[in-house]
Amino acid sequence: MGLFSKLKKSLTKTREVLAEKVDGLVYGRMTVDEALYEELEEILIQSDVGVETSLELVQRVRDEMKARKLDDPTRLKPILKAEIQKIFGDQESVALNLDTTKPAVIMVVGVNGTGKTTTIGKLAYRLRQDGKTVMVAAADTFRAAAIEQLDIWAQRAGTAIIKHGEGADPAAVVYDAIQAARARNQDVLVVDTAGRLHTKVNLMEELKKVFRVIGRELPGAPQEVLLVLDATTGHNAVTQARIFGEAVGVTGIALTKLDGTAKGGIVVAIRNTQQIPVKLVGTGEKINDLSYFNAGEFVDGLFG
């Protein structure tokens, strides 16, 4: 299955809520009125586009319909699609920032249960498919299962892993991983981090500490701070994007479980309210089911 086909298939449930309901909204109507716009707002909110972004989009659609003196309800859907596309700007996709520095560091953050460890395994595989040498660091030391799980994914992806025991200092793991990646001349180091702490230590403070160690050992790193978000959590994902963004300056989002939810509109909400680009999207369970995000394909997939 091609990249676009995978993305389009993963958006099936969202498309049923959004595009098909918009079709139902305009079908049989003869004129455009305020009731139509109110129902459109409800449809967007149900798709987890979020209240703020939904209101903005409906106002833009209203303004465009008025400016073009359109009173045909069937013209609403293509205008809505164009307005959603505008939220993503001219860039169809935003590439991972892997500059010529060796190793480039991708720090991966996110709460437990989002599919963070799985995403790291898929990302390592994807980067290797792109011709990069990759090492992973198991710096989520607060959960023994996280280290074991990452070890399995590293084996599947064919990458080296640097790990300590459960309860080790995450910053020490990262320090050792940087030295190992340098010594082995690796292109990319992908760092797993804690998603929940069992101690009284604040999670964000722990992440800031890891961030500082990376920057001290490799000036200019991390080149990427990827936040893994579970699409099924809907609007909670916007809150997570804001909190992690304030703590460690998130540069991109990896969205997981898009194929299992009708809440794909969250991508639009995050881009509009947090200005953080989605860079990767999980489209299934297999190791090759991680795609680089393409805004044009995403919007086409939303509307069928």
Could you walk me through the main structural features you see in this protein, from its secondary elements to its overall organization?
- This protein has helices at 3-10, 12-17, 19-26, 34-46, 51-67, 76-87, 116-129, 144-157, 170-183, 203-217, 236-248, 266-274, 295-303, and strands at residues 104-109, 134-138, 160-162, 188-192, 224-230, 252-256, 278-282, 290-292.
- It has 304 residues and is α/β, with parallel strands linked by helices.
- Strands 3-2-4-1-5-6-7-8 form an eight-stranded mixed beta sheet, with helices on both faces.
- Helix 8 links the parallel strand 2 and strand 3.
- Helix 7 (116-129) runs parallel beside helix 8 (144-157) and helix 9 packs parallel to helix 10.
- It is elongated and about 70 Å long.
- The mean pLDDT is 91.
Report the order of strands and helices: HHHHHHEHEHEHEHEHEHEEH
- Tell the overall outline: elongated
Estimated radius of gyration = 21 Å
Q: Tell me the structural class.
A: alpha/beta
Q: Would you count the extended β strands for me? A: 8
Helical fraction equals: 40-55%
Task: Assess the beta-strand content as a share of residues.
Answer: 5-15%
Uncertain runs: none
How many DSSP H or I helices?
A: 13
Q: Please tell me the overall pLDDT.
A: 91
Largest sheet: 8 strands, mixed
Query: Strands across the major sheet, in which order?
Result: 3-2-4-1-5-6-7-8
Distance N to C terminus: 17 Å
